[in-house]
Amino acid sequence: MDARAICLAVLSMGDASGYEIRKSLESGPFGSFTDAGYGSIYPALKRLSEEGMITGRQESQEGRPDKTVYSVTQKGKLALLDILHEAPSVERLTSDHLFRLFFAELLPVRMVEALIEERIAHYRTKIAQMREGRERGHGSPGADFVCGFGLALYEAGAHYLEEHKHALLAAIAIDGEAPPAAQQPDSALPSQAAE
Amino acid sequence: MDARAICLAVLSMGDASGYEIRKSLESGPFGSFTDAGYGSIYPALKRLSEEGMITGRQESQEGRPDKTVYSVTQKGKLALLDILHEAPSVERLTSDHLFRLFFAELLPVRMVEALIEERIAHYRTKIAQMREGRERGHGSPGADFVCGFGLALYEAGAHYLEEHKHALLAAIAIDGEAPPAAQQPDSALPSQAAE
DNA sequence: TTCGGTATATATCGGTTCGATATATTGCCG
DNA sequence: CGGCAATATATCGAACCGATATATACCGAA
User: Fold this and answer.
1) What is residue A186's predicted lDDT score, i.e. its pLDDT?
2) What was the pLDDT predicted at B188?
3) Do A99 and B33 touch (CB under 8 A)?
4) Which of residues 131-150 of B touch strand D (CB under 7 A)?
5) CB of B89 under 7 A from strand C?
6) Domain residues of chain B, as ranges?
7) Do B20 and A100 touch (CB under 8 A)?
8) Closest in B85, B104, B152 to A141, CB measured
9) Does residue A192 contact residue B11 with C-beta atoms inside 8 Å?
10) By CB neighbour count within 10 A (0-12 exposed, 13-18 middle, 19+ buried), where does B141 fall?
11) What residues have CB less than 8 Å from B48, skipping those under 6 apart?
12) Does residue A186 lie within 7 Å of nucleic acid chain C, judged by its CB?
């Protein structure tokens, strides 16, 4: 799933400019499980256009600079179908928050608390937005399914953080008084286990 | 959180070779929320070594090729602490599965079913592994917290998929008989809404 | 003995992406 | 007028991905 696939997917749901594609990734239904920045979107749009998978037209607007709005061609729709039929290969989560929470005992308690609160707030905001969007009307079966899935995960995440926050803070408040001792995972380093 | 931070983090929990770092990301506690391939790990180790944050020593093994095992230096530990104190910036999920499920009505029912089953199996396997690892002994408070968080999310994900699978399959079996009509998200493309 | 496959172990490469930055247009406000 | 924000497009260097390459060691089959 590269930037071209992402652009095709967004455009398959309606015409858009490069800027709008980016905006829809930031706050639309796609953004939860994919992302692409301007640095990828614009070259991708250029290539898709050269390959005849999308066509662009210039549009003037009142009070705003002109924009190029892209439509997906029949060729582009077929290409998107091909992509969807390929075996999925990428499942990846990158989380700076979890990375820091993993080493919570090395951080000040106040900071760990802030990290958790921040994440709870983020989830709760997301949940409210998605709930609102769902009430306004439903999308396709697939979009609904994925939205429901996202809601379920956000709910579970928020709930876990709310329920276990105090236990972690209590544990590191005690641990924080001991010298920082790096704990060793049990099976991640087989050569260590062999020693 | 770049490859250098990841290597420092893994090494802070015990000495390891480049290969072992990669293996620990594939199946250790870190791999759920971060990742790095050989293409990033080896250049990062080289740089960290040049910067005096890690030291490498050659080790011979029986029945296996020699390896270079890296240890983190005091300088490296301080650098990791600095990194942990920086504000978190990256939270990203990329999921080929969800991307395809979003367009479920464009895909054959059998394929959608397989995608979902595959994901359920993956979650259930992960859950079992993590449960097993937890029984064997506990890690640091932070590691336990993050592990519990991961478990909660996997459980929620598996449960949602199991509970809603049939509804989606039923919906697209009906929809699959209509001409594929791209549905338009309601608020993702403000310029469309304006038209 | 040789070959193919697998595991361990390290390294590299071209294409892609990220994140930041730059530029341009338009409007608003002090 | 200048600064700021929003819209809109484009670019750039550093970093990364995914594939590939190479090397060592072992095992089993032909």
Assistant:
1) 39
2) 39
3) yes
4) none
5) yes
6) 3-85, 96-175
7) no
8) B104
9) no
10) buried
11) B4, B7, B8, B54, B70, B76
12) no
ipTM of predicted assembly, 2 dp = 0.87
Chain B residues lying within 8 Å of A84, measured CB to CB: 99-100, 103, 106-107
Cβ distance A189 to B14 less than 8 Å, yes or no, reads yes
**A76-127: pLDDT as tens digits:** 999 999 999 998 988 999 999 999 999 999 999 999 999 999 999 999 998 9
CA to C1' distance (Å), from B4 to D14: 13
pLDDT for B122-161, tens place per residue?
Answer: 999 999 988 887 776 668 999 999 999 999 999 999 999 9
DSSP per residue, A77-144: HHHHHHHHHSPP--EEEEEHHHHHHHTGGGS-HHHHHHHHHHHHHHHHHHHHHHHHHHHT----HHHH
Does residue A65 reach within 7 angstroms of strand D, measured from its CB? Answer: yes
Q: Which tokens hold the place of B147?
A: 């592990």
Question: Looking only at Cα atoms, what is the longest distance across chain A?
Answer: 71
Q: Which residue from A24, A95, A103 is facing B33, i.e. has the nearest CB?
A: A95
In CATH, the architecture of A3-85 is Orthogonal Bundle (1.10)
Distance of alpha carbon B11 from the chain centroid: 19
Å: A66 CA to C29 C1' = 24
- A68-89 as b/e: b if 16+ CB within 10 A: ebbebbeebbebbeebbeeebe
User: Distance (Å, rounded) from C-alpha B84 to C-alpha B71?
Assistant: 19
Of A129, A131, A150, give the one whose Cα is nearest residue B95: A150
Neighbours of B164 (CB within 10 A): 16
- Residue A184 in tokens: 């060793």
Amino acid symbol at A134: R
Q: List the structure tokens of B176.
A: 């699959």
Length of chain A (residues)? 195
Mean pLDDT is lowest, of A177-181, B60-64, B133-137, B156-160, for A177-181
Which amino acid belongs to residue B23?
K
Assess contact for A1 and A90: CB atoms under 8 A: yes
